[in-house]
């Protein structure tokens, strides 16, 4: 029987160069438990697997399908089609060297143009940056934008209103330092 979950767990652990004990400590499980997961003797709970899958950068829908498939008897595993989950769009990311530093941009027009051209930003954040009202109302600085992206840029499914709340939160915290 194919050990779908175990192979992914072992691959992730090896990529991080961690022992089974070290990897297990990240999830409050023992090294022998990780060994059993990797060998397919035991399957992790769905909650534990979703935490591991998130760290392995496996989309949640695909992770759930993988977990269900692994739980089924072998003759029924072919009923779970993972191709639909694999088609989901890949989330773009910055190369560390190419990551823009918006904190250095003082001109609002230049800042806005660069943000609109940034293909890596979450769609909700991008929608906010495309909104004239946002710029007129908030007049964000490059430093505020950089903090917003650094702290909340990984929330790819978040909507525009949540990012507006985040910028207000950033301002509230930065003002409390005075």
Keyword list:
434 Repressor (Amino-terminal Domain); 2 domains; elongated; 178 residues; mainly alpha
Distance between the termini: 62 Å
Shape, per Cα inertia axes:
elongated
Enter the CATH topology name of the largest domain: 434 Repressor (Amino-terminal Domain)
Helix content: 55-70%
Overview of this protein structure:
The chain has 178 residues and is mostly helical. The chain has 2 domains: 4-86, Orthogonal Bundle (434 Repressor (Amino-terminal Domain)), CATH 1.10.260.40; 96-175. It has 12 helices and no strands. The chain has helices at 4-15, 20-25, 31-39, 46-55, 60-71, 74-77, 83-86, 108-117, 123-130, 132-138, 142-152, 160-175. The protein is elongated and about 60 Å long. The N and C termini lie far apart (62 Å). The mean pLDDT is 85.
Short description:
By secondary structure, the chain is mostly helical. The chain has 12 helices and no strands.
Outline the fold blueprint.
Layout: H1 4-15, H2 20-25, H3 31-39, H4 46-55, H5 60-71, H6 74-77, H7 83-86, H8 108-117, H9 123-130, H10 132-138, H11 142-152, H12 160-175
């Amino acid at each position: 029987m194919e050990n779908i979950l175990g192979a992914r767990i072992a691959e992730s652990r090896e990529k991080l160069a961690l022992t089974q004990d070290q990897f297990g400590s990240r999830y409050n499980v023992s090294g022998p438990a990780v060994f059993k997961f990797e060998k397919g003797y035991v399957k992790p709970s769905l909650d534990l697997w979703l935490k591991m899958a998130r760290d392995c950068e496996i989309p949640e829908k695909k992770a759930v399908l993988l977990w269900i498939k692994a739980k089924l008897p072998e003759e029924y595993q072919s009923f779970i089609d993972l191709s639909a989950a694999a088609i989901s769009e890949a989330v773009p990311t910055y190369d560390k060297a190419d990551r823009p530093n918006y904190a250095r941009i003082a001109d609002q027009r230049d800042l806005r143009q660069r943000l609109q051209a940034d293909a890596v930003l979450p769609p909700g954040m991008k929608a906010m940056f495309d909104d004239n009202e946002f710029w007129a109302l908030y007049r964000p600085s490059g430093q505020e934008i950089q903090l917003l992206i650094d702290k909340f840029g990984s929330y790819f499914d978040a909507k525009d209103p949540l990012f507006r709340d985040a910028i207000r939160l950033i301002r509230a915290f930065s003002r409390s330092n005075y």
